[in-house]
Amino acid sequence: MKFKIDNEIIEKFPGITIGVLIAKEINNQGPIPKEVQEEKKEQETKIQAQYPSTETLSQHPKIDIWRKAYSLFGGEPKKNKSSIENIYRRISNGESIGQINKIVDIYNVISIKHMLPVG
Description:
Elements: H1 7-12, H2 34-50, H3 61-72, H4 83-92, H5 102-114
Helix pairs in contact: 2-5
């Protein structure tokens, strides 16, 4: 497996830190662990209480930084939101992020708990 970062990214973001996780022999089949489901529900409840409206969500420093990064890449953050902003908006609007599989559900819990795009 080869992972390459374009030089333009390094030039625009000289202090960038990028992490890559490679996991082998993982069983992603079967039911989502109960602990993951419970933590997801707990985090969704906290988010709904903390952000009953999406009006000020874009001003949160952890969301704003992703909007700025998207702009630097030439993106339109109002039109194309980061995954974490999309998830928080859905939860704030009373939706659950649902279940996909073990790995996706685990990184979604990490993502919403720390307000950080993980996937």
